[in-house]
C-alpha cells in the first residue's frame, strides 16, 4: 500500500493515522487529496459550505462489509472524526463532509431490486431517488420517496421524508420495512419490526445517530403515470392562491392523491416576487377537482401534464452556491400565509449583500392523513400525530455566492423565522415540530419530537453505541447526547 500511504507523507496527525490504517485494509477504496476519485467526491457536493471542507481521506465503500471494516477501524481510534455522505442535500457545513477527518462516500451502494412478488424494493443507501424511480417506473411500481431525484435515499428517509405519496402512505420512513446498517462495533445488523424493533423505530427520524445504513427495504406498490407540473400566478394573486392552498390542506376529506408545494421566490436584482405552485396528483387525471379552484385563479403559466415519476423528479442540478435552510410547522390559515409573506417581505426587500442573494419560501401541507400513519409498522420517532390537526411545513431558503456574508445571512434568516413563529404563536397556530431535513444547525428538530421520543432515541443510542462513536466522532448532523 506504499503508493497510497505516500499521499500522506510523514505527517502524524490523528486523521493521518486513521487514514493510513484505513488504506492498509481497504486499499483503493480509500482516496487522498489530488486523486481523481477524491476530487470527484469533492466536486459532487451541493453547497459551497460542504464543498469547501477538505477531508484527509475519502472512503468509497462498495459493500456493507467494506463499511464494517472501516467503522471497526475508526471506532477504535477515538481521535478519528468522520462524516457520512450520500447525495449531500443538507447544505450545512459538516453534515456530509469534514475538515481533518474521514469522509465516507456511500454513493457506490446504489443498487435497486424488487422481490419476486413486487411488494418490497431493496435500495442501496447511496442511491439517489432518480435511480430508484427510473428502475421502478419500468416495472409499474413506486415507493414513497423524495420529490427531487437528486436527493439521496438514506438521508431523506432517516429524517422522515416528504413524498408525493405521503397522503396515501405516510412519511417515507413509515414505508421502510427493514434497515441494514453497520453499528459502531462494525457489526452488520437488520432492524425491522421484529428484529431490533427499538432501533428500527429510532432510525425513522433519528438521522445519523445510530450507525451507517447500507440498505433500506421499502414497501412497494403498483403505480402508473401521474399528473404533475406548476401553476404560476402573478404575485398580486397571492391572497387567492393562499386561500386555495388552505382549502386543499384543511379539507375535511383530504384527497389522498393530491400533493402540493406553494413557493415564492424573491429576486434581489428585480426586487420582485414570483409565485408558483407545484401540483401533483398521483393518478393520471388531467383536471382533478381538488385543483380546480387553484386553476381558476388567473395564471401566467400552467404546465400540469400526465407524466411519470422519474421524468418529474429529473430536475436540473442547482449551481454550487451557499445555501441556508430553516423550517417551521404551523396550523393552516390563509391569513397566516399572508402575514408570513408580509413579514418576510419587510426584511428581504431591503436586505443587500455583495453578489446578491435569492430567497425562497415553500409551504407544504402536512395533513392528518399523513401523520395518521406514524404508528404503522413499528412506529416512527417524529412525534407528529393527527392530534396536531392539519398543519403545513415551511422551508425558508437563502442562496448566495459571497461567503463573507454567511454570518449575516444566517443571523437574518434566524430573525425572519423568529418573527414568523411569533406571528403564528399569536394566532395559536405555532406547532413544535421541526422537519429535520429542512432544519438549520441553530434549530432543534430532534428536541421538537417531544420528551418521550428524545428519551427513546437517547436510550437506543446508548444501547447500540455505548461509546458514543456516532455522537462524538461524527460531528455533523443533529446529535442526541446534547439533549
UniProtKB/TrEMBL annotation:
- Membership in a protein family: Belongs to the oxygen-dependent FAD-linked oxidoreductase family.
Kindly indicate where the leader peptide sits in this chain.
none
Looking up Gene3D superfamilies in the UniProt record yields:
3.30.465.10
What keywords does the record list, in alphabetical order?
FAD, Flavoprotein, Oxidoreductase
| Lineage top rank: taxon | Eukaryota
The FAD-binding PCMH-type domain, residue ranges = 51-223
The record's GO molecular-function terms, alphabetically, read:
FAD binding; oxidoreductase activity
Q: From the Swiss-Prot or TrEMBL record, give the protein name.
A: FAD binding domain protein
Quote the InterPro entries the UniProt record gives: BBE, FAD-bd_PCMH, FAD-bd_PCMH-like_sf, FAD-bd_PCMH_sub2, FAD-linked_Oxidoreductase, Oxid_FAD_bind_N
Record bears the keyword Oxidoreductase: yes
Reply yes or no: does the keyword Oxidoreductase apply. yes
